[in-house]
Structures are given as structure tokens and as C-alpha cells.
Amino acid sequence: MKLAWRFLTQPDSCWVQLLTAKYLKLESYWTEKKYHNVSPIWRSLCAVRSSMKEAVCWAVGTGHEIKIWSDPWVPYLPDFRVEGLPGAQRKIYRVADLICQHSRMWKVDLVHECFTPHEARAILSIRLPMDAVADRLLWLKTPTGQFSSKSAYTMLTQNAPSSSSSPKINPAFHWKALWQLQGISPRVQIFLWRVITNSIPLKSRLAQFVSSIDNCCPLCHVSPETTDHLFLKCEVVQLVWFGSPIGLYVDMNNNDFTLEYIFKGWLSQPSSFEAAKMGCAIIWSIWKSRNRVVFDSWKFDPKEVITNALHVYNEHLVAACISPTLPQTNTQVGLVEASAHWSRPPEGYIKINVDGATGKNSIVVGLVARNEFGVVLACRSIFDGNWSGKDAPLEAS
Ligand SMILES: [Zn+2]
């Protein structure tokens, strides 16, 4: 919306003139029109048009800048726009045509001639400034008439449909324990706070505001990208959790098994603080890789995500204090009644865990190989979006 505001208020800017010449020509930004093969900037400008319509209106000065039939300029009418009487559009074009610039009065007869009685009354109710000042576009969501991102965000969130995917923030969440965690990067701590409070620009959230945004998860392309899906329940992300030193098995049949639930459990007792820190590093690493998938066409690699999470975790690790506890955290999680507990293989052996899961017409198979220290040696996922079989674990085997 900020970009749209600039587009409307900075007509002399080079980029505005370029877009205007390419897409609008003599049309108005406000005219609904289907465009094909347009630039991402123009697509985003069009996507917010309906939201802009309720927040923008001209303050009439000379009227030279305002197009009568497309621009918003009559505060007392729906969408601040006029429809006029048949044939009127051929007579007048700019609001300046309706104003006697010498006397600074409305041309009352012409107004009655061109508009319905209701519209005419609304127009004549607009008080014209005594001096011929320039027209000014107003942002109606702030007292000053100037755009602010905060007011735009407030407007959008008030208009947005309620989201069933928004986590219900439990005030009993152990925020204090999170902030008091030692040996963890503050940026990772803050990131968990952003995730739990639903402050991450996930696609499902953005799609509430901009209808043109596809809300599909960029990793599996099956489910909407919500907090719990992206960071926990996505088929490929499950592999990350299972292959990590935490060895977390994501129970898809338990609706209470959410990210907030898991971290609340970890943060409730000092014995599982290391699992909480590793968990923070994992969601941070998932987010970084997800962004590379979205913006750099990167391929999501669970093994790479785990490796990066371990780097983040080790950044602030005091080896002597922590190394003995982490491999056992899957048994210390406490709250998670995991249906599978991983145990290390005997010395000199490699343990390979395999699991499969199905979506509507898809199957994903994961494989994790770890040595006797619990270190991940290999990790592989296979995703098939055209699957029609029945038993995923069997096929995985
Ligand atoms: Zn997904």
C-alpha cells in the first residue's frame, strides 16, 4: 500500500511515469481492468487497489488534477465516487470543469445538469478553498492526511477475516524462561517470539490482505503455509525434526501438538532448556531455508537445515556444559508423548530410520542415518505429488 500511495502522490517520479505509460496510458489507476503478463510491481499495485479505495480521497483545490469519473473526490458518496447522468461524461472530464476559477464557486447549473440530485447535493456540499490551491490527495486513516504504514496495517487487520490458523497466545507461555535462556543468540530467541505471536509474514497471513497471493506452502505445495504447518507439520519439515538431535516425532493425529505446545513444554523445566534452544535453532534454520526456496529457487534439503541449525546452536554453546545433555533430549521433552523414541545404535553401527506419510494424492518418504553418537550422517526425502497407493510406511520400507 505504501508503494501504491507513492504511485498516486508522486506522478513525476520516473518509475511512476514508466508504469503509467506502459499500463495506464490514458486510463486511471482506479479503473478495474484485467492485465496479462504484467510486472510484479504493477501486479502488487493492482492487488491493493480495492483496499486503497476506502482510504484515499482528493481534497479539491483547483480541480485540475482530479478526474471526475474515476477518481475519489466526493467525501459523502460511497467509495467517494460519482456515476453521473447519461451523457454527462462527454461534457466534463476534470473537476476543474465544474468550478468557476474566478469566483471560486461551483458551477451549480452544470452540476445539476450532469449529476443525480443526490450526487449534486454531495458535490455542492464540498467547500472550495478561497485561493486556487493545488488539489491534494488525502490518506483518510490518519488525522494529517499523510500515509503511514501503521495506519495501513491497522486498516488491513481490521478488515481481514479472522484466521483459524492464528495461534491463540496462551498468557501462560513461559516467556520469562525464553528470555532467560543462556547460550543462545538473541536473534534466535526473538525469532521464536515472532513465530509464536504469529508475526512472521507467512503466505497464509499475507493472503488475508492481498487476494492475489497464493497461500500454498512453498515446500510441499499441498497445504496452506501456516505457522504450525511450515515449522512443524509440513511433510519435509517433519524430517528435519526427526533427523535433528532432538529426534522429535511429529504426531499428525494430535491437533494439540502445536509449536506453542511443544515449546511451552520445553521451557517449563530446566532439564529440557537445551531442547528448547535446539528447537529455536531449528525453526530459525527452517525459515532461512524456506526463504531461499521462495526467493532464490533453492531446493529444500532437510540435512542442510539440520546442519545449519547445529551451527546456530553451537554458536553460543559452552561445550563442556551442554554436550552430554542434548542427545538425550528426546527423552527429556516430557510433554511430548512421542510414539517413537530414538535410541543410539551400538558402537560402530549406523542406524537408519525410515518413515512415510501420505497426503490426499501425495506421499513423502524420509530417511535418516545416524551413528552411535546420534550425529546425522545422511538424510534424504522423496516427495511424490501423484501418489495413489495406500500404505505409506509400507512403501517407505
Ligand atoms: Zn508444506
From TrEMBL:
Record-linked InterPro entries: RNase_H-like_EbsB-rel, RVT-Znf
Record carries keyword Cell inner membrane: no
Pfam families: zf-RVT
GO molecular function, one term: RNA-directed DNA polymerase activity
Domain Reverse transcriptase zinc-binding: start-end pairs: 147-241
Signal peptide boundaries: none
Alphabetized UniProt keyword annotations: Nucleotidyltransferase, RNA-directed DNA polymerase, Transferase
Source domain of life: Eukaryota
Nucleotidyltransferase listed as a keyword: yes
PANTHER family (alphabetical): BNAC02G40300D PROTEIN, REVERSE TRANSCRIPTASE-LIKE PROTEIN
Protein name: Reverse transcriptase zinc-binding domain
Protein's organism: Macleaya cordata (Five-seeded plume-poppy)
